[in-house]
């Protein structure tokens, strides 16, 4: 496998650095695309229900749609020689398994940016108010670790700059994160 083959899924809690690091990772490849799940989900301009919104069934339906769209777009890019960096909070095995299934037979890499919870909270608190997450994501943090721990490559980014994190992912994801 060449180091431009496949699809990279970059996950983590709010404040882990996903939206900062993903475009930096993509910029380190000769041909790459940054696919933001948040951007795709906000394409629903009327009737959008966030992942933890109400009604719950509509939130789940829109989450499944977002996941499908991310994977379809990533597959289209990968099949045309553009390395996709998919950025979204994947906090459970069922969602990751569904994504891997949609992306196969392409190689899939999973990188979880996972600084300590307090680092995520501090970073989230210093964000622009329009980008700040306004719910307690501690249960999601614990659930992600329990459900996905040991899957792919987990990076504690607390002491790394975004550029250092992107360099590390570019250099090692094809070995460390391959599913």
UniProtKB/TrEMBL annotation:
InterPro entries, alphabetized: P-loop_NTPase
Entry-linked Pfam families: AAA_33
Name under which the protein is recorded: Phosphotransferase (Aminonucleoside antibiotic resistance)
Source organism per UniProt: Nocardiopsis dassonvillei (strain ATCC 23218 / DSM 43111 / CIP 107115 / JCM 7437 / KCTC 9190 / NBRC 14626 / NCTC 10488 / NRRL B-5397 / IMRU 509) (Actinomadura dassonvillei)
Phylogenetic classification of the source organism: Bacteria, Bacillati, Actinomycetota, Actinomycetes, Streptosporangiales
